[in-house]
Queue: 4 jobs
Job 1
Amino acid sequence: MIALFDSGYGGLTVLKSFLKVLPKYDYLYLGDSARVPYGPRSPETIQKFSEEGIQFFIKEKVPLVIVACNTISAVALRYLQKKYSDQIKILGVVRPLAEYAAKNSAKKRIGIAGTRATIASGAYKTEIQKLDPACEVIGQACPLLVPLIEENWHHKPETRMILRKYLRSLKTHNIDTLILGCTHYPMLQKEFQKIMGARVHVPNPGDIVAASFEDYLQRHPEIEKKLTKKGTQKFLTTGDVDRFEEFSTIFLEGTKINVQKIAL
C-alpha cells in the first residue's frame, strides 16, 4: 500500500495523477483537515503535526508515504526522513518539481507560488540551485488561496482578482516556468496559466510527481515489491467526513468516495 499524507484535501490532486499513472496499487489517503491549513503555522507546529501523521502510518504498517503537501515537504521532510528512516520510507513533492523546473526552464528564471511556510523555507530555491546554480528562483506566497479553495470559491471572480495581485510580481520578473508549490493550486491551474500568459509554462504538479514516483519504483524494486496491488483506495480524515466527501468529488472530478474519521 502507498500512503499519501496531506494537511487537507489538496493532496487529492496528487492522488488523481497517481491513479492515472499507477492504477494497480493500493492507496491510503490521510488528510489532516481538522487542522488545515498548515501553511500559516510555525515550523515547529508543522513538524509536530506531520510527525503525528507519520507515526499513524507506522502503526498501520505502511511501507511508504508520499507527503503530498508542499508545506510539509518544504519544512519537515528532512526531519521526518532522518528520524523514521529505519521504520518507513518517506518521499516528498518538492524534489520532483525542482528537478522538473531546473531541467525545463529555458531562461533559468523560475517562479514558485506557495504557502507562506513553503516560500519562507526557501526549499525550492535550495533544491533547484543544487541542480543548476544558474537558475534564478522567485517565490511568491499566496496565503489566501488555500482557504478560498477549501471554501469552494476557486471559481469566484474574487479569487481570480486576488490571484492576479499575487502573480503581479512574478510577471515583472520575466519568468518562463511557474511551479505550483501547493497541492491545492492545480484547482486554479487554468487561472494561473491565463494570468501568466502563453510564454510561461505552468505544469500540472501532480503529473510531475506521479511520473517521478513511477521512475523511483523502477529504480527501487526492493521497495516496489512491498506494495500491494489490488487497485483499492481508502480515505481517512481528522475533520468532518461529509465535508471531505463533498470536496473529494471536486478534487477527484466527480469520483465519490467513502471517508473514515480518525484522530491523530
Job 2
Amino acid sequence: MKNYIRRVVLSGLTALFCALPVLAQAPAEGGTASNQFSSQAFAFIAAGIGFAIAAGLAALGQSRVAAAACEGIARNPGAGARIQTAMILGLAFIETLVIFTLVIIFAKVTPPGL
C-alpha cells in the first residue's frame, strides 16, 4: 500500500510539473511580466489535469472490463461470443466518456479568437 501511495503522489507531481510551461507564456498585448499569470493559464493546467484523470480512470475501467470478460469466457467458453459483444459495447461507452471530456476541454479552454 505504501508503494501505491508513493506512485500516486509521484504521478500527480509529474502532471503538475509538466503543466508548468503554460505559465511561461508571453504577456498579453500591453501587459507586463508582473500580470502574466492569468486565469486562462490556470484553465489550461486544470484542463490538462482533468483530462489526465479522466483518461487514467477510463484505462482502469477498461482493464477491469477486459479482465472480467476473460474470466467469464474462461468459466463458460460457450458464451464467449455474447460476452465479447457485451465487452466491446462496454469499452465503447467508456471510451466515449473520455472523448466527451476532450471535447468539453477544447470547448472551454480554446481562446475566443480560434
Job 3
Amino acid sequence: MLIEHNGKRPVVDPSAYVAPTAVLSGDVRVGAETRILFGAVLTAEGGPVEVGAHCIVMENAVLRGSKRHPVAVGDHVLIGPRAYLTGCTVEDQAFLATGATVFNGARIGRRAEVRINGLVHLQTVLPSGGLVPIGWVAVGDPAEILPASEHDRIWRIQQKLDFPRVVWGVDEWRDSMLPDVLERYSRALGRHSEDRILDEQG
C-alpha cells in the first residue's frame, strides 16, 4: 500500500517489488531491484526513508524516519523479519538479522552485522565489519559491544548519549514531562488522518 503523507508520495523504482501488504508512507524511496516483503512498514514521520538498490526488507520489518533523523539504507543490505530501524544510517552490504533494533542517530558500517535480537543504541557507531552478537547491545561511539546482562554499564554509556534531547528534543527527562511529550507526539501523528491511499497509477 502506497500512502501520500504530508504531501509526499513514495517513489519506487520500476524494477523493485513491494508486497501488497507492505506499507510505504510519505517521503519513501526504494531503489532498483529491492524487495519489500509482506507486512513491512516504511514510514516517513517528518524525515525521509531511503532504501538503496538490491536490498531485501523482510516480513514485518519497520523503517521509520523522523525530522531529526532520516533513515538511509545503502545497497545490498538485508533487513530481517521484525527488525526495527528508526532514524539511522545503514551502509552497503550490512546484515541486520531477525529482530535487530537500531535507534536514532546510529550508524551501521559497511559489511557490519547485527545478529538475531541485537540492539544498536542511539548515537552509536558500529564500524565497518563490526558485529553485534545474538541478543547483545552496541552502545557509544565508538561502539562498546556488551551482553544485555551488563545493564548498569550500558546505562552509564547510554545516559551520556542523551536520549531525551536526541529523540524528544527536551533538555532533561522528568516524569512530569511525559504527558507534554506524548501530547506533542500525538498531534504530530494525528496528521495521518489527512493521508491519502494511492492507487497503482498514483
Job 4
Amino acid sequence: MSSDEPPHNPPRGPLILFRRAPAGIDRPRLRQFARLLRERVADGRPFQCLIADDRELLRLNSQFLSRDYPADVLSFPESDAGKPEAFLGEVAISSDRAADQARRLGHSTEQEMCILMLHGVLHLTGMDHEADSGEMRRAESRLRKQLGLPAALTERAS
C-alpha cells in the first residue's frame, strides 16, 4: 500500500487490487462501482483500492495506526489530494470483514464492499465522521441512497 512518499506514477483511473479476495466476488461490478465513485464522489480524481484479507488489514492497521485488530476499511489520503486532478490516495478493504458484515446484515459481500469503498473514498476527500458534526454521515447516507446501497457505516454506528 502506501509508503511515506507519494507514488511517482499514480493511476489515471480507479484501480482495484485483489489480493486474497474470496472466490465468487463480482470483480467487474466492483471496478464499475469504483469508476462511479471516481466521478460522483472524487470529482474525477483517481484512487486505488486494495481488497485483501483480515491478515493484511491487521498488518496495515498495526503499521500505520498502531491498532491491533483487522479493520474493515482503512483510508490513506495523499498529502496533495486537495489539488485538482491529484491522486486522492488508497483505500484498503478486508474481504473477511465485508463477508461477515454482509452475512450479519443480510446483503451481498459485493454490496458490503461497495459500502466500505464509499466510506473510504469519503475519507480520502477529507471527510471525518469523528470530527465533523454529522457531515460525513449525511453525505454517506445521501450517496448510499443514490447508489442503491444498504445502510452505510456511519448510519449503522448511529
